[in-house]
């Protein structure tokens, strides 16, 4: 049984709590920035590495696949052996992956480096678990919201920074910057984040980890390769079927395991289920914008006027308001959760996101419309990202916080892949054969799809249960 936190934890000075939060925010921002920093440079990387668009797409896909597979395992290891220890190891691997990418001589080496970098997604759930363990209870909702809002801000900043560095220096500086940020984050964590006072007893569920990893690889590989291989092709259908079989096997194994990686009881709890479905919808809606807005901005105006002919830098700057508004959105989760509960912060975030999506679907012919309406999307994104871990923390035992939030993050990653592939499918199906431009109808359809999935998220959010104490395995599996 987990021992209670020592009295010294409650007596930690306010300055020490601020330093912990600073270290965690810096670490999360460094990851979030590099999640999207390569997006503006994909066409340039295709040319300079003498490769094909299919292979250059794997610069993003490899990162997402690696993140999805490694995050729940690393999060669980953090719960078992110490969150500070695992975060330190992840940041070291992250810095090495960045240096490898900066020195890559071909697309294969760059993809391999991105696989290593994917481990860094684990810093998000581990950071949130550190917040829950180290900060006073009354500060936890605010801290979780701020950290989660930083993920949205960093993702938006990645597009801006990626454009600036690609336009004015070299794509290699994208990863040099990542290595510097990883090193700074590592030093902060070592200096300011205390060693864990509370760890869960148990072991890593190796069979569960293997089944989860293989099932995710099968499903995400099918999603990423569907447009190239054909959605009804035997390889894609076979991968989907394999993923489903492996997930079914995972459920059977986890139900029979005393110390499971995936607690099936948690997944069947209504609040946790709402948070996971919300993460899937949010990931899908977010990537609609990450792909459509820069593409619209950079496109030379076509016959229907779609496009601004902007530089990579300007395309990124148009997304800057969404990056900035994500921070106050995340910070607002604490007060809203305290007054009304995290489910209403989640519902409000989805409603704001959908409002911004509707506005940009109706009017996107001017640059100011992109900037202002995406700012509303960013505000909603900050609320959503802050509320999701709060809903989970309200529902699971403290010793499983990192693992449960880690699962939520990989579900959001799956949503990101779904969103990117749906957006690509819309563009392909609605673009004239042989045309060198994307019609306005394709962009409008993508924006409406984003509004639709986030409206669904707003409808589901109130179904989360308001609790004063987290669930235990016995209450949901007994």
Report strand %: under 5%
CATH topology: Growth Hormone, Chain: A
Number of helical segments with 4 or more residues: 21
Based on the structure, what is the oligomeric state of the protein chains? single chain
Number of domains: 1
Sequence stretches where pLDDT stays below 50 over 5 or more residues? 1-10, 468-478
Class from helix and strand fractions: mainly alpha
Distance between the termini: 18 Å
**CATH class, anyone?**
Mainly Alpha
Please compute the radius of gyration using only Cα atoms: 21 Å
**Total number of strands:** 0
User: Could you estimate the helical fraction of the residues in percent?
Assistant: over 70%
- Describe the sheet with the most strands: none
What is the name of the CATH architecture? Up-down Bundle
Shape field: globular
Order of helices and strands: HHHHHHHHHHHHHHHHHHHHH
User: What is the fourth-level CATH superfamily?
Assistant: MFS general substrate transporter like domains
Mean pLDDT score? 81
Domain Major facilitator superfamily (MFS) profile: 20-469
GO molecular function: transmembrane transporter activity
Keywords: Cell membrane, Membrane, Transmembrane, Transmembrane helix, Transport
GO cellular component, one term: plasma membrane
Question: Summary?
Answer:
InterPro entries: MFS, MFS_dom, MFS_trans_sf, Tet-R_TetA/multi-R_MdtG-like. The protein is mainly α. It has one domain (7-204, 261-477): MFS general substrate transporter like domains (Growth Hormone, Chain: A, Up-down Bundle), CATH 1.20.1250.20.
């Amino acid at each position: 049984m987990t021992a209670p936190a020592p009295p010294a934890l409650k007596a930690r000075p306010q300055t020490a709590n601020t330093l912990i939060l600073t270290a965690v925010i810096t670490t999360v921002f460094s990851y979030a920035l590099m999640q999207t920093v390569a997006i503006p440079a994909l066409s340039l990387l295709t040319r300079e590495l003498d490769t094909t668009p299919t292979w250059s797409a794997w610069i993003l896909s490899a990162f997402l696949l690696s993140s999805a597979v490694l995050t729940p395992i690393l999060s669980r290891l953090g719960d078992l052996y110490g969150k500070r220890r695992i975060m330190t190891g992840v940041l070291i691997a992250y810095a090495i992956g960045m240096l490898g990418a900066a020195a890559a001589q071909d697309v294969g080496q760059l993809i391999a480096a991105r696989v290593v970098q994917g481990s860094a997604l684990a810093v998000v759930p581990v950071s949130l678990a550190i917040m829950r363990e180290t900060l006073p209870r009354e500060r936890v909702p605010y801290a979780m919201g701020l950290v989660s809002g930083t993920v949205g801000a960093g993702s938006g900043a990645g597009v801006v920074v990626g454009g600036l560095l690609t336009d004015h220096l070299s794509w290699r500086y994208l990863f040099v910057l990542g290595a510097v940020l990883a090193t700074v984050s590592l030093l902060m964590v070592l200096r300011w984040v205390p060693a864990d006072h509370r760890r869960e007893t148990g072991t890593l569920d190796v069979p569960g980890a293997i089944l989860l990893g293989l099932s995710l690889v099968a499903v995400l590989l099918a999603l990423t390769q569907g447009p190239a291989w054909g959605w009804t092709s035997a390889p894609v259908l076979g991968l989907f079927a394999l993923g489903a079989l492996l997930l079914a096997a995972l459920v059977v194994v986890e139900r029979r395991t005393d110390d499971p990686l995936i607690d099936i009881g948690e997944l069947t709890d209504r609040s946790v289920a709402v948070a996971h479905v919300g993460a899937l919808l949010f990931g899908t809606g977010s990537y609609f914008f990450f792909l459509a807005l820069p593409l619209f901005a950079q496109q030379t105006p076509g016959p229907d006027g779609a496009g601004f002919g902007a530089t990579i830098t300007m395309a990124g700057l148009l997304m800057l308001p969404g990056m900035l508004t994500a921070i106050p959105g995340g910070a607002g989760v604490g007060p809203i959760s305290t007054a009304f509960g995290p489910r209403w912060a989640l519902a409000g975030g989805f409603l704001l996101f959908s409002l911004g999506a509707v506005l940009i679907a109706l009017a996107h012919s001017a640059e100011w419309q992109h900037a202002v309406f995406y700012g509303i999307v960013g505000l909603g994104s900050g609320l959503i990202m802050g509320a999701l871990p709060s809903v989970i923390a309200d529902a699971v035992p403290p010793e499983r916080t990192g693992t449960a939030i880690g699962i939520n993050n990989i579900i959001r990653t799956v949503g990101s892949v779904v969103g990117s592939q749906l957006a690509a499918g819309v563009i392909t199906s609605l673009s004239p054969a042989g045309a060198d431009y994307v019609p306005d109808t394709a962009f409008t359809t993508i924006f409406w799809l984003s509004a639709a999935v986030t409206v669904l998220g707003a409808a589901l959010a109130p179904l989360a249960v308001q609790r004063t104490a987290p669930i235990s395995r016995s209450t949901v599996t007994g």
